[in-house]
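Below is how a single chain appears once it has passed through the pipeline. First comes the sequence as given, then the structure the pipeline wrote out for it. We keep one example in the README because the format questions we get most often are answered faster by looking than by reading.
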Amino acid sequence: MLDHSSPAAPARRSDATRAAILDAARERFAADGYERATIRAIARDARIDPSMVMRYFGSKEGLFAAAVAVDLKLPDLRAVPRSEAGHVLVTHFLTLWEENEVLTALLRVGATSQAGAERMQGIFTDQVLPAARQLCPDPEQVPTRAALTAAQLLGLALARYVLRFPPAVALPRQEIVAWLAPTVQRYLTAPHP
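Resulting structure:
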């Protein structure tokens, strides 16, 4: 007699539960910040028992790290004409911010908690610095140039997607790119002042 029960069914339920927890956590961290978000509130939002959150993620810190896992998918800047790098990066980041609520949640939490700030610092170190190395004329200036680029892009994101300043929200994408791309380009490729 054949066994028609599927071991994939529990795995699908497990994946669905994990996804529901992560969705609820992203929303809760974005709304309440890291410090005020609780496992109980996240579990309630996901319509599961709090023990399930701990089973899947071990701790609030583990949940936060999983909920805000971010791959910026930065383009290979060596494949871009050097004079277009600023344009490419600003366009890329606008697309990321508009399509990924995790980044907005991370920015909010990063500005209000140590755990969020550390997560943002990790993304900077692991993803932004290597991208900047592809363009910077002076290897010793890579950290400074990458930090200035990040400050410019994060400042835009804060004003447009978190604080929602009406003039920043109203700006068309093309205009944002036209304003910011030359600045980002200068930070990454211009001679040291």
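Residues 70 and 109 are 14 Å apart (CA to CA).

See the next section for the split statistics.
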